[in-house]
Design brief:
The structure is a single chain. The protein has one domain: Gcn5-related N-acetyltransferase (GNAT) (Aminopeptidase), CATH 3.40.630. It is 33% helix and 31% strand. The chain has 5 helices and 7 strands. The protein has a 7-stranded mixed sheet. A hairpin with a 3-residue loop joins strand 3 and strand 4.
C-alpha cells in the first residue's frame, strides 16, 4: 500500500473534498440539502462552528475525508466519512476515524456521536470495530439518517 498522510483541510482541496463526498453520497442515494451546504460552504458549516476536516492524501491525491464538529455536552460529532472506491479496504477510513478519536480525547470530550444510514454497511462495521454503539435515535440532522451511534471516551 502507498503511504497515506492525514492532513488538515485547506481551500486548495475544496473540489477534491466535495467530489469525494458526493461520489459516495450519490452512489447510495443519500445526498440531501444539508450535505450540499456542508460541502459547498465548509467555512460556515464546519470551521465557523469550531470544526475540522481531515483528509487522507496519497501522493498528491485526496482519497478520503471526515468532518469533526464540536457538539453539545462536551462531545464531538462525525460527518462525511468517505474513502474513494479504489482506496477502500486499505485502512484509510480507520485512520481518519482514529484521527477524530485522538482529537476528541485531546480536547477532553466525553463522547463522539454520528448519524448514518444502514445502507452504509462497511462504515457501520468500522464504527462497531472502533467501539461505537447504537443509541436511541431522536432528532436527526439528516432526513436520510436512520441510525445513531456513539463512542464513550
Amino acid at each position: 500500500m502507498e503511504r497515506v498522510e492525514i492532513v488538515n483541510y485547506s481551500s486548495q482541496y475544496q473540489q477534491d473534498y466535495k467530489e469525494l463526498s458526493l461520489e459516495w453520497l450519490n452512489e447510495n442515494n443519500l445526498c440531501e440539502d444539508a450535505d450540499r451546504q456542508m460541502l459547498d460552504h465548509p467555512q460556515r458549516e464546519v470551521f465557523d462552528k469550531g470544526g475540522y476536516i481531515y483528509l487522507a492524501k496519497v501522493n498528491s491525491k485526496i482519497v478520503g475525508a471526515v468532518v469533526l464538529i464540536p457538539s453539545s455536552n462536551n462531545s464531538y460529532e462525525i460527518f462525511k466519512l468517505g474513502v474513494k472506491k479504489n482506496y477502500q479496504q486499505q485502512g484509510i477510513g480507520r485512520m481518519l476515524m482514529e484521527c477524530c478519536i485522538q482529537h476528541s480525547k485531546a480536547f477532553n470530550a466525553k463522547k463522539i456521536i454520528l448519524e448514518t444510514n444502514t445502507a452504509l454497511k462497511s462504515a457501520i462495521r468500522l464504527y462497531i470495530k472502533l467501539g461505537f454503539k447504537e443509541v436511541a435515535f431522536n432528532c436527526n440532522k439528516y432526513e436520510l439518517s436512520n441510525l445513531k451511534m456513539e463512542l464513550l471516551l
